[in-house]
Amino acid sequence: MKSFGKFLQSGDWKGEKHVPVIHAPEKVESGEAFELRITVGDAIGHPNTLEHHIKWFKVFFHGEGDKFPVELTNFTFDAHGELDTTTDYVGATQVKLPKTGTLYAMSYCNIHGVWENTMDITVE
Amino acid sequence: MKSFGKFLQSGDWKGEKHVPVIHAPEKVESGEAFELRITVGDAIGHPNTLEHHIKWFKVFFHGEGDKFPVELTNFTFDAHGELDTTTDYVGATQVKLPKTGTLYAMSYCNIHGVWENTMDITVE
Amino acid sequence: MKSFGKFLQSGDWKGEKHVPVIHAPEKVESGEAFELRITVGDAIGHPNTLEHHIKWFKVFFHGEGDKFPVELTNFTFDAHGELDTTTDYVGATQVKLPKTGTLYAMSYCNIHGVWENTMDITVE
Amino acid sequence: MKSFGKFLQSGDWKGEKHVPVIHAPEKVESGEAFELRITVGDAIGHPNTLEHHIKWFKVFFHGEGDKFPVELTNFTFDAHGELDTTTDYVGATQVKLPKTGTLYAMSYCNIHGVWENTMDITVE
Ligand SMILES: [Fe+3]
Ligand SMILES: [Fe+3]
Ligand SMILES: [Fe+3]
Ligand SMILES: [Fe+3]
User: Fold this and answer.
1) D25-70 per-position pLDDT tens digit
2) Does the global pTM surpass 0.90?
3) Where does the record place the Desulfoferrodoxin ferrous iron-binding domain (chains A, B, C, D) (predicted)?
4) Partners for A (CB, 8 Å, 3+ pairs)?
5) Measured on CA atoms in the order B93, A116, A50, D74, is the torsion positive or negative?
6) Exposure of B94 in the CB half-sphere (CA atoms within 13 A)
7) Contact C97/C26 with Cβ under 8 angstroms?
8) Residue B78 φ/ψ region, left for φ over 0, alpha for ψ in the -120 to 50 degree band, beta for the rest
9) Which of A28, A58, B2, D12 has the greatest CB tally within 10 Å of its CB?
10) Are D38 and D75 in contact (CB under 8 A)?
11) H helix count then E strand count, chain A
12) Which helix (H) or strand (E) element contains residue A88?
């Protein structure tokens, strides 16, 4: 059967401008609030115009040994030049995790599709 | 590298209550508006409570031979019993497609993760 | 104090193309599922281009005598011509309401701001 | 005519736990990227459970003398205890503004409705 999974593109964010970068501590305590920050463009900027822009980031957490991932957050970038206003590709929030696992971040460009990145995080 | 694609679960919606069902014509004309309707629960109902519910559907289109998919729509189900109000698992909109391709629908259950389904559509 | 409420524009949808139209039964039974359909453009079409488009509808229900409204649903229109694909301004779902009250629908145009409409619904 | 504006509640965030707090510089340069951070709970924490939680923040900018506001961003808080995971009420992004105006932030609690706050920002 066809799966949307084949459209989840990845790569090294230092060379591929669409890949979301996950900024989080490598190690946190269980249930401790920490800042989770997703960005596009740390190395190479991506356009932000009405014709070509990143629309959103979506983030999930998958705990080691768990059957299903849990959705954490969505960030939308809604101003792409309207009245000379732009929302840039930074999305940050705070999360609490119960155990060691993996963060999955996705970003969507209206021209170049869906991109993803992951980061393992140790929870003690 | 790890990919979120492995969490995209599928199955026969007649036996698996999380799988979104795509209702659309099998054949449309290029640029002709048609109704696109996504549902969960056509055969087996899914709970709709604060503890356990479907949160959203997300839909993409991939045109034959295209490199990237295009996002069409998001539906969110926001009432899960608050003040005895519920939003049920139906999301419909209208779209225009330029060519033959495939519709991809995803649904997310807060307990059972992400599910997907696809439908080929002929555009003449 | 300033309130965002002053930006919620309205008018007669027959003459003002941004106003969302609410399609629902005037009377339903308590807890009975019914189709709730929101549209823009029933009388006058609104552009759907990268430069100028409706981005979303947002819908709330306020029950008679209740202190707070409950959010029902969000519809996003995400294709505005990318690869000649468009999502048109129709959003439909199903809801169950506990009592008589009022539906509030909002729509957002990236150029012309936020518009609203309401519809009273009798629940028996 | 009825307007949803009457449901936009406000108050002093030091005493009312639902009111979003806007953290941004008081003065920025035109077109300069700055961090925009919205929080709930700086003074008094709000519950984060499946039964009672904040679901989203929504942010607009209205430039002095402009006719319409421009949407900047949406943050959704999606984990409310599923598998002991929570997303806390912090949402941050980066924006560029063309001129002096006002930021409008809204937050939605599934039990207590919609709350708003505003902040004037000088753009030189
Ligand atoms: Fe791109
Ligand atoms: Fe489920
Ligand atoms: Fe418009
Ligand atoms: Fe509350």
Assistant:
1) 999 999 999 999 999 998 889 999 999 999 999 999 999 999 999 9
2) yes
3) 11-117
4) B, C, D
5) positive
6) 13
7) no
8) alpha
9) A58
10) yes
11) 0, 8
12) strand A86-96
Chains sharing 3 or more CB pairs under 8 A with chain B: A, C, D
Check if the interface score ipTM surpasses 0.85.
yes
| Residue where the block lists tokens 């199955």 | B11
Give the domains, in start order, of chain B with CATH numbers: 9-123 (2.60.40.730)
Residues whose Cβ atom is located within 5 A of ion ligand 4: D 109, 111-112
Q: Do A72 and D78 touch (CB under 8 A)?
A: yes
Q: Is B27 a catalytic residue?
A: no
Residue of C7, C48, C49, C50 to mutate when probing chain A, most A C-beta within 10 A: C50
Are the C-beta atoms of residues C59 and C103 closer than 8 Å to each other?
A: yes
CA distances from A124 to A24, A99, B70 (A): 15, 7, 40
User: In the annotation, is D17 catalytic?
Assistant: yes
Residue whose entry in the numeric block shows the structure tokens 């849990």:
A70
Single-letter amino acid, residue D96: K
One-letter amino acid of A30: S
